[in-house]
Predict the structure.
Amino acid sequence: MSLNYYDMVRSKDKNFDVRLAMVKKARTEGIRKTAREFGASRNTVRLWLRRFEAGGPSALREKSRAPKSCPHKTSPYGERRIIESRHQAPCFGPRRLKDLFGLKPSVSAIARVLRQYGLTRQRRKKYKKKNDLRQIKALYKVGERFQMDTKPLKDIPAYWAFMKALGLPEHQYTIRDVKSGALFIDYAGSLSTTYAYLSFRRVAKHLERFGARLNGTILSTDNGGEFGGTERRERTYGFHAEAEALGVRHRFLPPRTPNAHGDVESSHAAIEAEFFDLESYRSRQDFWEKIRTYQLWWNYARPNYSKGGRTPAEIWEEEGGDPRCLLLPPTDLDELSRQTLIDPRVGQDVPVDTESWDEIFFKSKIIMIEFQLIQTWSRKA
């Protein structure tokens, strides 16, 4: 053959190239020699030579072998019925359309018509689902929806040694605003309903001081025992009851729906990579100073690229809220629980709603740090 290796490898249509080379050689050296060199019959060479002379190079390409008529093909009327039924029930597949609309074509024929007219439902990719969810979340208002979860810290290798040596907290209680991505985090040595309620109540009362209205606010949690998710009947006390008493609508996530808590779960992944895997600590006080700094950086300086590169404080301010409410620093829930009166009827479930909370909060040393940060933010604005 007169085709070399390079031409055959780079060819997009090898059959066309072979036929074209055959025709060129037959026109210059004759049919008999060409047939012998290409290993083909003389009739085959004549066939392609006649086609080339009649239609040019395009006549050497493959032609469709499909039959010109198909007696059992779905009729135009049948196709119209399939299309009309699909428009009436776009959620139905071929089999359900055939059964409920009494269509005569087979299930495979109905599926073919749906594909032919672009009426099939494409499975959405994961990134498209996330983008769709972001558009929905963008319609929320700040403080309208919160997600709360806990994060065990004992399984973080870079933090474990410091935790054991310095007696650092073993669990993180996380609350995140869905609209702005604002983060509120607290820490404790164990998981309990008391700590979960103390953490949420502390954030709720703090936001109310800055004019936030929690009536109708939705708080979603998983079905963990610290949130009352393992209880078989609704009680008049516990995390769920006390959260509802604050005017908040507490919702449990349906089973096996981890994506529904994507905001708070993504913050857990970020804080582990950006804080716990990088930092080292000299003492418990050093840990608290660094985690408070990290939360301030998250709320005021860390751009969220899934929200247009804006920080939670900028989004909160754009929505008409007071961004100074994001200055609430993390706290030690173990120490806070010792300062809060506990109802003896409740045991270790939830603390009593006492007026001493405001006194405890405003007597803390953190108020001076907050005041300085507020002044800094006001000058920036």
In short: The beta strands are 145-152, 171-177, 183-188, 218-221, 249-252. The chain is about 50% helix and 10% strand. The longest strand covers residues 145-152. Residues 342-368 have pLDDT under 50 and may be disordered.
